[in-house]
Amino acid sequence: MKRITIKTLLAAGIAAVLASGCAQVGPSTKKGALIGAGTGAVVSGVTGHNVLTGAAVGTAVGAGIGYLDDETR
Questions:
Q1: Which pLDDT belongs to residue 20?
Q2: Rounded CA gap, 42 and 69, in Å?
Q3: Total domains, the chain
Q4: pLDDT of residue 54
Q5: CA end-to-end distance (rounded Å), the chain
Q6: Is residue 17 in a domain?
Q7: Are 67 and 28 in contact (CB under 8 A)?
Q8: 50 in a structural domain
Q9: Is residue 8 part of a domain?
Q10: Could you tell me which of 56, 71, 67, 72 has the C-alpha nearest to residue 28?
Q11: Nearest Cα to 27, choosing from 35, 16, 19?
Q12: CB-based contacts of 54-61 (< 8 A; 24+ apart in sequence)
């Protein structure tokens, strides 16, 4: 299994910031991202996995669900 390095994580974060810089995010997207980040970090910490990776994945999933909620309203 390929290991995620700090450089890869940093590059993905910069790309996400640049890609979303022009977009307006709704309240559910922001709320979903925050909840997802917290949940991902806690679950990763409890199970003994990488907390930063769990937070990143949780943020992406939570923001995606929040975005879908914003779009359906």
A1: 65
A2: 24
A3: 1
A4: 87
A5: 40
A6: no
A7: yes
A8: yes
A9: no
A10: 67
A11: 35
A12: 56/9, 56/12, 56/13, 59/33, 60/36, 61/36
What whole-number distance in Å separates Cα of residue 2 and Cα of residue 70? 35
3 lies in some domain = no
In this structure, the chain runs to a length of 73
Dihedral, CA of residue 48, residue 15, residue 28 and residue 63, to nearest 10: -40
Beta strands in 1-73 (DSSP E): none
Please name the amino acid found at residue 28. Answer: S
Which residue range is the domain that position 60 belongs to? 25-72
Q: What is the pLDDT along the chain (73 residues), one digit of tens a residue?
A: 567 677 777 888 777 777 766 667 788 888 888 888 889 889 888 888 888 888 888 888 999 898 888 888 7
| Residue 10 confidence (pLDDT) | 82
Neighbours of 13 (CB within 10 A): 12
